[in-house]
Every structure is written in C-alpha cells, then in structure tokens.
TrEMBL record:
The entry's keywords: Iron, Metal-binding, Oxidoreductase
Single Gene Ontology MF annotation: metal ion binding
Name assigned to this protein: Fe2OG dioxygenase domain-containing protein
Domain of life of the source: Eukaryota
Residue ranges constituting the Fe2OG dioxygenase domain according to the UniProt record: 203-306
Species whose genome carries this gene: Arabidopsis arenosa (Sand rock-cress)
Family recorded in the similarity comment: Belongs to the iron/ascorbate-dependent oxidoreductase family.
Matching SUPFAM superfamilies: Clavaminate synthase-like
PROSITE patterns reported for this sequence: FE2OG_OXY
Length: 353
C-alpha cells in the first residue's frame, strides 16, 4: 500500500503534487514564528509563584518530572501511528461499530460531542491537513470487542492495545490535570470546598485526541494547512508531541515556535480557565505549522472541561454553563466557519449575543 492511500482523498493532491492556491494563501497570511522558550514547571517541586507567572503572562508552560512512564508514551505513540497508517477506508470503518465511543475525523479539529466533524460554514478556510481519533476516556470501557472493518482479525488486537494504553495514559494525565488545577486554584485564592473542584474541572469530561499531520512533497502548501489559529475551549489541555515540532503560540502580536523537548508535556490554559480566573489568566492563542513536511507529525492531547450544567459566574462575562458555550461554538463554526468563543459571552464585546 502506498502511504498516500492512508490519507483522506482530499489530502492526496497536496501531498503528491501541491496546491498553488494554498501556496499563495500561505505566503500572504502565515508568518514563521521565532523560536522561544516557554516557562518550565517541575511537577515534583511545584513552585506556585512560577506557576502563577506562567499562567498570567503566557497561558502555557512545559511540565517536567510529570511521572508518566516513558515506556507508556512510546508504546502509545507506536500503536497510534500504526492505526493511523491503515488505509483511509479501514480507519473510517474501524470505529464505526454501533455504540463505539471512539471516532475518526479528518480535515478539521472542530468536532461535536460525539466526536464527528462539524460541517463548516461557507466562510471556512481551507481543509486542515490533519486527521485523528477522538477518545472520550470515561467511555473507553464500552469499546465494542468487534468492529465492522474487513480486516477485523488483524486490527482488533491493535484496537484493544490502543484501548488499554489509552486507559493507562488517561489515568496519569487526569491525575496531572487535577493536581495542576488545584495548584492554579490556590494561586487565584479560588474556593474548592465540597464539590466545587469537580464543578470547575470534571474528570468525566476528559477526552483524548490523537492527531496525525501528514508528510508532503510540497512544503509551502502544507504550511498553509496545519491546525488553524484557535484557543482551546477547555479548562486545561495537556499535549504530548513528537520531536517534529510545529506548535506555535501568539504572545503580544507575534508568533513564536515552541520547540519540542523530550519527555516533557506541554500544558496550556483554555477558555474556561480564563473565565474562572476572571481574565487574570489567559487562554493561549496557538496553531500548528510544521516546518519539516518530509516527516509526519504525531501528537496526543488531553482536554478537560467543567461540569456541563455548572453555571460559571465572572464579572467580565454573563453567567453561562459550559453546555451553552459549547453549543454557541458549534453554531458559529457551522454558520461562520470559525469559532468566536468568549467574545460571545462578554457584554463589552461587539460580538456579544
């Protein structure tokens, strides 16, 4: 099988031949970021002042000594790459079993609650050059023991290994997310008594997304079509990436490249943390724009959210539950082609609804 056959058909022209229109857009819109070192937080000796500064000035930091076994992350990357390298049609069928909680997506990171790609409005930009699996952690134990894929006998052991590894990795990442949130809450003097912590950050909402950004023989076109500029809707997002790099953040009015560092995690704050902190901490604006398109880029990202029906109150935003925010984001993506996010809930914003 040619490697291009594992990619969605819409990717293949760019991968093999390039797309001059995408190239023109890349040259006119995208500016290469400068390399930058983001703050580092040592999980074993967590310094609250360094954490506060990282959240306030950056919205992103690198996590060292996080306690996730290297053998686990290596094996998870190996099995994820193996599944994503299957023929495109096989991947589409692999998670299509009735009631399977896992889903396969491509061309956009904008998904609904079921993990299906949202149909985007006419104003949407070009198809994003990424694909992946959406994995809600609380539903992994419900993964069917058989699939509809023609090569069941070959793929079921891989899928079971993927499930087991995801569950183990998910336990580690959930532990990290809870510990970090509690530490961040202390820097904000946020009251977490009773059920308040699980209202702000509900472990049951945790999900993983496994991403693959394809290689391309046409570099400029590929640079135009990575992960688009966005903020995460989460409270906290935790990224494990390979060594190929490509993550860029906006600080001030400039783009900066975040270089990968072995055996570390990248933690960024999402929109819900910005609201919870009453804008003291910021949801970082970021994108993925690979420099080297001779190799694929693989990453795994964990997202966690507030309890869906918990109403968050802030002096800068109208009170809202995460379910309202999610519905508004999806409506904007479907009608406008892009996420608007927090300005929809800020009475001082011209985009307020």
């Amino acid at each position: 099988m040619s490697i291009s056959e594992s990619y969605p058909p819409a990717f293949r022209r760019v991968i093999n031949d390039g797309d001059p229109l995408a190239t023109a857009e890349a040259e006119s819109v995208l500016v290469q970021g400068k390399d930058i070192n983001i703050p580092a937080i040592d999980m074993e000796r967590l310094d609250k002042e360094i954490l506060r500064e990282a959240c306030k000035e950056w919205g992103i930091f690198r996590l060292e000594n996080h306690g996730v076994p290297l053998a686990l992350t290596s094996r998870l990357q190996e099995i994820s790459e193996s599944l994503l390298s299957l023929p495109f049609e096989n991947k589409r069928e692999l998670f299509a079993a009735v009631n399977s909680p896992l889903s396969y997506f491509w061309g956009t990171p904008a998904l609904n609650r079921s993990g299906d790609a949202l149909k985007r409005g006419a104003q949407a930009s070009n198809v994003a050059m990424l694909e992946g699996f959406n994995v809600p952690l609380s539903s992994l134990s419900n993964l069917p023991t058989s699939t509809s894929c023609d090569n069941d006998a070959d793929q079921e052991p891989k899928l079971e290994s993927f499930r087991v590894l995801m569950e183990e990795y998910g336990r580690h990442i959930t532990r990290i997310a809870v510990s970090l949130f509690e530490a961040i809450a202390q820097t904000l003097d946020l009251e977490l008594s009773g059920n308040r912590r699980s209202e702000y950050l509900s472990e049951s909402t945790g999900l993983m997304r496994v991403y693959r950004y394809p290689r391309s023989s046409y570099q400029a076109a590929g640079e135009a079509l990575g992960m688009e500029v966005h903020t995460d809707s989460s409270v906290i997002s935790i990224l494990k990436e390979d060594e190929s790099g490509g993550l860029e953040i906006m600080k001030g009015e400039e783009w900066f490249c975040v270089k990968p560092v072995a055996n570390t995690l990248i933690v960024n704050l999402g929109d819900m943390m910005q609201v919870i902190s009453d804008d003291e901490y910021k949801s970082v604006t970021h994108r993925v724009k690979k420099k080297n398109w001779k190799t694929e880029r693989h990453s795994v990202c964990y997202f966690v959210f507030p309890k869906r029906d918990y109403v968050i109150k802030s002096s800068n935003y109208k009170p809202f539950a995460y379910s309202e925010f999610e519905a508004q984001v999806q409506a904007d993506v479907q009608s406008l082609g892009t996420k608007i996010g927090l300005p929809r809930f800020n009475p001082n914003s011209p985009l307020f609804l």
